[in-house]
Amino acid sequence: MKFMIAVLLLLALPLAWADPVAALVRPAAVEVSDKAALRDGASTFVGYCMGCHGARFQRYQTVADDLGIPYEQMLQTLAPAGAAIADHMQTRLQPADAKAWFGAEVPDLTLVARVRGTDWLHAYLLGFHADPQRPWGVNNVVYPNVGMPNVLESLQGRQVLDCPEPTGQPCTQLRVIPGTGSLDAQQFDAKVRNLVAFLAYSADPAKAQSRQIGMYVLLYLALLIILAYLLKREYWKDVR
User: Fold this and answer.
1) Among 30, 40, 71, 151, which residue has the fewest nearby CB atoms (within 10 Å)?
2) Residue 49 annotated as lining a ligand binding site
């Protein structure tokens, strides 16, 4: 009996030590084959992220070709003034200014979806909340003590913690103050998913194309197996 109790206690230890923040990272179901979503994500990235973060391994021309955006439209709407279509998507923020404002150089986001994963990025972008004790007035339930402002607050609205009673665990319940954002919860979630989809595309631009090629390869292999089986029957017919 004592042995069974000890086993049950050991099995319960992971639950006791479970990270409540990890529960916030759920499948984001991001699809990189939806070009309309990727175009919206690219627009959000340029309009809200690229003031500080760049995508220096990505070119405007590549994005335009892959997402079906005319070059002229790309330069007018998604590139800074004076940029050439073959330029890399680099931020205009200087490293010295970044260190002065944020205390460190801001990371490049070309490969962030590969490093962090799309599920984490989705949860992170939804996890900002007001915190007057932080330098930028915000914090993040997924990445505590975050060092950047909530650049999407005008879309989402002012989000606050919503834990009425202390439980000894970090508060992860969030609530958006009504009327403080230009999008409702569903629209904002779609906007964030599109942004994450664009970051996923930037991290692996050939992923959608490789899926399409993979389907043709599988069809070819299936046909090859059928032909090999028919050839085997033809050979063994004479042997038998």
Assistant:
1) 71
2) yes
